Amino acid sequence: MDYSILIGGEAGQGLQTIGGALSRLFSQIGYHVFSHQDYMSRIRGGHNFYQLRISDKQVMSSRQRIDIIVALDLDSIEEHKGDIAENGIIIYDAHFIKKTFDSHGFLNVPFNEIALETGGDKIMSNTAAIGAVLGMLGIGLSVLEDILHKSLKNKSDDIILKNILTARAGYEYAVKNCKECRFSVAGASDKGYMLIDSSAAIGLGAIMSGCKFYAAYPMTPSTAVMNFIASKAQQYGIMVEQAEDEICAINMVLGASFAGVRSMTGTSGGGFALMSEGVSLAGMMELPVVILEAQRVGPATGFPTRTEQSDLMFILHSGHGEFPRIVFAPGTPEEAFYLTNKAFDLAEKFQIPVFILIDQYLADSEWTYKSFDYKSLVYNDYRLREDFLKSMSEYKRYAYTESGVSPLAIPGDSKHLVIVDSDEHDEDGHIVEDIVTRLKMVNKRLSKKLPLIQSEMSPPVYHGAEKPDVVVTCWGSTYGVVKEAIDTINYNHSGKRIGMLHFSQIYPFPSMQKFDFIKLLEDADITICIENNSTGQFASLLRGELGYAFTHRINKFDGRPFILESLTEEIYDYIR
User: Fold this and answer.
1) Do the beta carbons of residue 8 and residue 48 sit within 8 Å?
2) What is the torsion angle, in degrees rounded to the nearest 10, for the CA atoms of residue 246, residue 248, residue 254 and residue 256?
3) Could you tell me the residue range of the domain that residue 64 belongs to?
4) 330-358 b/e with 16+ CB inside 10 Å = b?
5) Predicted confidence (pLDDT) per residue in 13-38, tens digit
6) Domain final residue, candidates 392, 421, 456
7) The pTM is what?
8) Number of domains in the chain
9) What is the CATH number of the domain that holds 491?
10) pLDDT tens profile 85-141
11) Could you tell me if 274 and 294 lie in one domain?
């Protein structure tokens, strides 16, 4: 079983209400779910859609073929009717859109009329639509009723009852009138699944890694992380500050880090441009900080609500001067959860900025999991606490050490004076301008730390055939769709042995002592790098750092994510 459902309409019509409720319902009754959203930057109007895929097997990408389209306006029909599957159905309210379709594959469901007659208010038309979809699929309403009770818990019992009755009416209408419905829904698992997007996964990872201060200025698509952490702030004793701008946000986070608190900030490309000086400040003062950068289409404002992987080089070269950094680019919510934990650990261990690089597609897409393994999380306190400091006769914040990592104390926590400075400084933290100290400090901050940081980086994930003829490489958010494309090609016996490399720990590149991925690429006949940008930033980085050039590239930069069928076909074009 593998069905795709698309809810299309204008902003403000409740697409997320319908899509979100269906996604939660399917995951709770034991189906795998993958969803993504496509929305314009305007608050009202424009064409938007919420697409979800349900299956009895794991799914991690969206498909071009749609089985059920819930069209809340006429534009959704015109825009997506070419994507409908052979036995697919478009449901719509003819009275609302002021047009009737009598041809095969259309079902007129009077959402507004059902809502008015049953619930007394057309605002419940979305509930009628949800009920109609479940009726088409032959899935019962009991879980939906439970979801309605929870989501409307602040409403009166009368409103909850009217929504339940409206859902039933929509369900019964579809069962009675959808004569063309041929959907066969496989049995679900005994237990439901956790449904989570990467924004929530990062927020959860931050909380469980001991983050106690989060400061940011709202900017799509990074704001969802701030909202998640803020929703848990009182429960876990976290200070969340909406700063007046991104410059203030990163400086507040650095101040909190200096004061001894695990801290994080988040923004998108335009906001991160303002943070650049603060990144350098972290580099010079050797303050641990975690920075989320959720990419969207640029330059400038670009497409504010679309997706792109175009900020990799920007992140790698942000901030003036030379200092170490780490860049993670998770490919799934699960990776986002664990890499956020690793980001906090390594930021504290090496006293450096660590970046988590996602994008709009990954930030908003929802995946199903049985659970996350919380026992594998790491929490090490690398700061010098009062009891240890009492035994130290002197404290030098920037002491020269074999590892390059100096002792990190908390100001006011002992008799020792804790000093940091944005100018070049000596071991005590006092300003200097002599050549000898400068050379020693650069060597301490950069040269000594880098090999140790590299040893912490995990190799890319390989999936596919042994000794592949073709290796497809991707990074970050393209993991799911590339994996499914590779599996599709291998299943169809293309005549080529094909595999994929996925990088989520981007910089510095991991040592090849763990896994010689360059040899894997060199031994293949065809190598393809897939990226959501126009210039092939990751391919250029790999060539610049390790000297390997891919034989082919597939680049998509229209602001939309890769879709399974079209990407599979593009890969086929190179290997046939």
Assistant:
1) yes
2) -120
3) 2-177
4) bbbbbbbbbbbbbbbbbbbbbbbbbbbbb
5) 889 999 999 999 999 999 999 999 99
6) 456
7) 0.95
8) 4
9) 3.40.50.920
10) 999 999 999 999 999 998 889 999 999 999 999 989 889 999 999 999 999 999 988
11) yes
